[in-house]
Each structure stands twice: as structure tokens, then as C-alpha cells.
UniProtKB/TrEMBL annotation, chains A, B:
Annotated organism of origin: Rhizobium rosettiformans
Superkingdom of source: Bacteria
Pfam families named among the record's database cross-references: Pyridox_ox_2
Coiled-coil parts of chain: none
Gene3D superfamilies (UniProt xref): Electron Transport, Fmn-binding Protein, Chain A
InterPro entries recorded: Pyridox_Oxase-rel, Split_barrel_FMN-bd
PANTHER family found in the cross-reference section: 5-NITROIMIDAZOLE ANTIBIOTICS RESISTANCE PROTEIN, NIMA-FAMILY-RELATED PROTEIN-RELATED, FLAVIN-NUCLEOTIDE-BINDING PROTEIN
Record's protein name: Pyridoxamine 5'-phosphate oxidase family protein
Amino acid sequence: MNDRPDPQSFPVTPRNRAKRLHERAAYDRDAVYAVIDASLLCHVAYVIDGQPYCTPTIHWRDGDWLFWHGSSASRMLKTQKAGLPVCLTVAHLDGLVLARSGFHHSANYRSAMCFGTAHIIDDPEEKAEALKAVVDRFYPGRTDMLRENDPQEAKGTMVIGMRIEEASAKIRTGGVSDDPADVDAPVWAGVIPVETRLRAPEICPKVPEGVPFPDHLGHFQEGRRLDEVLTESQALYEKQG
Amino acid sequence: MNDRPDPQSFPVTPRNRAKRLHERAAYDRDAVYAVIDASLLCHVAYVIDGQPYCTPTIHWRDGDWLFWHGSSASRMLKTQKAGLPVCLTVAHLDGLVLARSGFHHSANYRSAMCFGTAHIIDDPEEKAEALKAVVDRFYPGRTDMLRENDPQEAKGTMVIGMRIEEASAKIRTGGVSDDPADVDAPVWAGVIPVETRLRAPEICPKVPEGVPFPDHLGHFQEGRRLDEVLTESQALYEKQG
């Protein structure tokens, strides 16, 4: 599978190779980034004293680097200059798949698992850049309108980063896959798609009169799909570089 | 916090005690189950040879027990009769919180982290029950309309279960929490709520003519919130017991 290495692909190793349903798997950056960039929420798995933790958090991406805020792992990371192995996963649920047999019930989804070694970002310049990115990556241009973080705030925020060493995406789309022998059964079968969309923005009642919904949030229109809006934010952010 | 143990609460230990923002945390079964039952998708963290994995999968709950399908951990579990420590996490994103400073940007969410020891469910009766539950818990009454799993299918499906030993829920709701000194800034601040809803069911084109959308899916109406529908499914399932 990885005989001729493709510069656009992550290496495939026992760690990231799909163990089941490998026809749904992909290892190229485009596929992995598409899943990651369409979401604000990820889950990070790490180990402390043999105990796994799975922490939901906000992530952001810059090239092959992923970043997130401090978590329960922070105390451990402080003492681990060599870094901590983690697996950061993003998943989108796209539909419920109802089959004619229990066995073929399923879900449509897009997921990406990323493996790497987490480090605390403690270089002051790198950290300041990351703390801007966590805002501007979702709301491009927004930090230009905000005061700067004060030193206490920067100090009170732990930023963790990792380069993606290996990754895989896994995607299921489409309809039901039933056994041919079951297809004539008089059973309703099909897909119930699900979608996550934005509702109307709720302005803080303390915002001074006359402050409009800003241009930099122009693509956050009521009713739009969250995954599409966040993908657009990432593209805008990268363009503004 | 746990001086007078509450039978409705999970024990609070260093493993599940919230490390940050503990005013958002809860340890009672009602809070934890509400988060779990509103979702089909969870993330399971486990460790193989020191490497953490974070696998998205479908979960279901029966009392204090959580179940999911086989995963990359399956091979390891086969050799580990004592079980494998895991952390199973469910998270819902409810809104984007845009503040007047980078520091106070946030998200509204509901999450639950559950700790336990995963075992393969290999007792044939228990396994058969679990394979019914994974359908009926989401679509109560549906297995009555399906053929039974054949022995090959049951054999080919790994069911993993764990009793929740410890758990915590963490919830953020409401508006922006800005520093009082920032509130007069001429900056748009507020919340953009997000919601996951059902779209219209897409029937498999091979379903024989005249098969209606079934009564047992009556609450899966187009436009309803997924979390509310799945919570209703769990309640119906428990009632049908």
C-alpha cells in the first residue's frame, strides 16, 4: 500500500493502518485535512500512568501541526520534555443507516485519526501566534478587532501542539448495504441524514448600540452547515496568511 | 465533594475529578446519562503498548453498562481476560462563543467522560441481547421486524462492554463571559448556536412498493434535533424493557 511513497500521503504503519473496513480508509493529506478542518471539536487520547483519557477539546491546524488548549495532561506534559504520545480524532456523523438485518445497520460518517507527540508550546512568540490562530482560524481577521491578550492571560493558557506523524481518514457515505437475499423483505430500509447547522447569532445584550454583525463573520449565516462554514474559515485564514 | 456518598452519583476520584473549570462539572448519573443517551457517536480511548488510540464508534447504554462494537482493540482484548482500561467520551457542540478578547472565546457544549474496564462480551446469550440492543436502543421495536442474526454474523461481530466505574459530565451553556473592563468595546460579541437535526429519510430504492415509513420510527421526523430523538429512543427502549 505504501510501496511508492506519495509526498501527499502520510506513511502507513501498523499504528494508523485501518484494522477493519479498510476500503473506507484513506491516508492522503487532502482526505485527512478535509475532516479536521470541517470541525472545531476533536477528542484527544493520552495516557497517564497506564490510564487512558479521552478529552473533548477545540483544535486548530497549521500545515501538519495540530494545536489545542491545555487539559488534564498539562501537568504531566510539564514534566515530560520528550513529549507525550497522543491520538487526536475528529468525527462527523452524517446519517443513520437502517438496514433489513441488524447486522447491516450502520452510520454515515467522516473521521480522521492523527498520531503524534504532544509538546507544550512555551516559546513566547510561538505561543502568541497560536493564541491568535485559535481565534482567527475560526473567525478570520477577528483578532484585529480585539485587544491583545494580557500577559496574565497568556500565562494562564496552556497551548499544546503536535506534528502529525501518521494519520488516516475513514469515510462511509451512501445507502444501505444489505445482503442480496434480504432485499425483498417488506422492511423499510434507508438512510436518515443528519446535519449540523448554525442558528441565528445571539448578540450579547451588553454590546453597545450600533455595532453590526461584523464582515469577518459574513459566512456564518443562519442555516448554513457548520462543517462547510469552518472549512471556508480555514481557507480564508490560510489565504490571509 | 464526596464526603457523603450519594447513591445517584459516581464516586469522585483523581481520575474523573475535573481538573479545570470545575464549576461546569457534575458527577451524578442523571447528568452523565443525559449526555450519553443523546448521542449515537462516542470516542473510546485505550492503550496498546503505551500508544493511545482514540476510536470513534457507536455506543449504547444499559444501566451502568456501556457497549460498543469491536475495534482495533479487539485483538488485544482477546488476549486480556482481565480487561483493558478505557475512557469513553461523548461530546455535543451547542454553540460558538465569540467574546471581546481572544482569551474568553469559547464554545457551548455538553460532554461526559466514563472510565471503566472493557471486556469482550462472549457469552452467547449476553451477546445476542447486546446485538438486539444496538438496534432497538436507537429504533425501539425494530428487531421484531428483522430476521435474526445468523450465526456467522454474530461470530463476525465483536461486542465490547464496560461497567462505568467513574464518570463526569461537563457542560457550558449561556452567553459570553467577558472581563467587565472589555464590555464597552465596540466589538460584536455573542453566541452562534449550532444544532444537529434530522433530514428527510431517504428510502432505499429497492424497498418493495407499499412499505411505509414504520411506526417505530415515528419520532424520527424531519427537522427534529438528533439529541432529542435519541433521548426519546432510549426512554422508549427502557419502557419496552
